[in-house]
Amino acid sequence: MTRPLPAEITAPALEAVALTKRFGAFTALDSVSIKLRPGSVHALLGENGAGKSTLVKCVMGFYRPDDGAVLVNNHEVVIGDPRAAQTHGLGMVYQHFTLVPRMTVLENLVMARASVPAVIDWAAERAALAAFLATMPFRIDIDAPVAALAAGDKQKAEIVKQLYLKARILILDEPTSVLTPDEADETLGLIRAMALAGRLTVLIITHKFREVMAFADDVTVLRRGKLAGTGSVAAHTPDSLARLMIGESAIAAPAARDGAPTNEVRLAVAGLRADDESGMPALRGVDLQVHAREIVGVAGVSGNGQVELVQVLAGQRTATGGSLRVHGELYAADRADIRRHKVHCLPEEPLRNACVPGMSVAENMAFRCFDEAPLARGGWWLDLAAMRRAARDLIARYRVKTTGPEAPIATLSGGNVQRAVLARELSRDVDVLIAANPVFGLDFAAVADIHAQIVEARNRGTAVLLVSEDLDELLELSDRLVVMSRGVIVHETTPAAADLTVIGRCMAGH
Ligand SMILES: Nc1ncnc2c1ncn2[C@@H]1O[C@H](COP(=O)(O)OP(=O)(O)OP(=O)(O)O)[C@@H](O)[C@H]1O
To answer: Which positions carry the signal peptide feature in this UniProt record (predicted)?
Structure first.
């Protein structure tokens, strides 16, 4: 049954009618309509590349739609840029944080206002913000520097910022992907409470069915740029939503583990030390071994040295102590050693860390092998036709959604950039694979695909180091699991023998 609207509503209704957006010859959004009832939470679902971001970017004024209209409270509005969206009461919260880490919450909020006085009366601003917060369900320390807040509080501060800027229609783009399940539930619960009170209308992009079922009233599903279905969440199950999302396409079956890990230590990390960006010790003596045909999962709360560990292994950060060995030989993590030992990497935020955004899909896919046959002839002559052919093959095999090998990789949706990098890294012989949060922000079909690929690589004999903030993913994929806290490994177990209370305690640093 559809939840009736709250009795007293101050939040507006939002409607997009027949929105169409083309990029060149490609139609990313094909006459899509969506209706947000005032005071409701509306989920927007779709596979990677379905058009969800394009739809909200059209509504928020980042893109100008080729056709269609946006209505606030049944009146057509023209939103030419994000500032205009703000004046119509629309606010957007992103997956990644946008507040300035060194400034306090109060400073961030005041500076975000459209007009900031030349001389700021901080005492008055502080009192006004405290009074404003007293009317909100969100509790945050407004005098804390943003950098000192836990991820859940940072996301709450991002939401409070939009409310403070008078947003009454909140659009959230995967707001919980950086939060623990408890933090996610608390944040979504608070937003839902405000919607239930009629104070907020919410559109939330998420890949998590559990969140849709628990927190949303209505749902709209996109598939390949078209509307696949819309209606009350109560009329759906996770299965029916999954079917709407993917249509007839098949989902990869979970790959079975084939054979036990061997005795050959493929990757050995001993006493590894490294500093973080600000020169503080991040790795304080990491000892770790990964065998051939083994997945070792590294669990931990983000910020405990995982990023630095991956960077050192990928040659993007210099160690200050300890040693790395691959195949028993010292490994310098430079281009020659990476190539000689067949070490491959799936880093976090692949568009930033593993791609050149302005270059094409084909060029990005060729990074590993542009100077080898068949792509290079006579030692240096690049065969562009061969490069395009190789890319077409990878695009088909790894189901990368792109207009073609010539498209700049930055124009692909987040999930499809991930698939393209995966295709490049896994389609060759891989002796050691370092994967960092490899399914972050991906839809369930892509998650199944990528997990299957990682297990298949392991079955072929690859040693896999899987660093992830998602404990469920680690428990599902790992042969062995270690917990990292404050730059050292503090616990080791197998998934079968894992005690979640002990793991939780180790993650929290107790
Ligand atoms: N600026 C652009 N130029 C060309 N094509 C684009 C551009 N932005 C998006 N696209 C294409 O439009 C399609 C929809 O992308 P969009 O980012 O809206 O998907 P999405 O549903 O948000 O996916 P994800 O869950 O991976 O973020 C994709 O095929 C993408 O390649």
So the answer is: none
Cα–Cα distance, 211 to 185 (Å, whole number): 8
* pLDDT < 50: residue spans in the chain: none
* DSSP reduced 3-state for 459: helix
What's the pLDDT at 92? 93
Distance 73 CA to ligand 1 centre (A): 28
Statement to judge: residues 366 and 508 lie in one domain = no
Instruction: Give the helix, strand, coil percentages of the chain, each rounded to 5.
Output: 35, 25, 40
Domain final position from 195, 226, 246: 246
Which atom of ligand 1 is nearest to 54's Cα?
18
Asked if residue 509 and residue 435 are part of one domain, the reply reads yes
Q: Do 377 and 482 reside in the same domain of the chain?
A: no
Q: How far is the CA of 30 from the centre of ligand 1 (A)?
A: 13
User: What is the model's pLDDT at position 327?
Assistant: 95
pLDDT digits (tens, 9 = 90+) for 315-342: 989 999 999 999 999 999 998 999 899 9
Instruction: Report yes or no: 444 and 208 within 8 Å, Cβ to Cβ.
Output: no
pLDDT at 370: 57
Q: What residues pair up with 314 in beta bridges, in sequence order? A: none
Q: Are residues 30 and 84 in the same domain?
A: yes
Ligand 1 proximal residues by C-beta, below 6 Å: 23, 26, 28, 46, 48-54, 401, 411-415
Which of 406, 426, 446 corresponds to the end of one domain? 426
What order of strands is seen across the sheet that includes strand 343-346?
343-346, 432-436, 463-467, 294-299, 480-485, 488-493
- Ligand 1 atom with the smallest distance to the CA of 51 is 18
Centre of ligand 1 from the C-alpha of residue 139, in Å: 35
Quick one: DSSP state of residue 104? B
CATH code of the domain in which 27 resides: 3.40.50.300
CA of 29 to the centre of ligand 1 (A): 9
Ligand 1 centroid, distance to 412 Cα (angstroms): 5
Domain that holds residue 223: 14-96+167-246
Nearest to 436 by CA among 418, 452, 448: 418
Are 42 and 176 within one domain?
A: yes
Residue 415 CA, closest ligand 1 atom number:
26
Domain count, the chain: 3
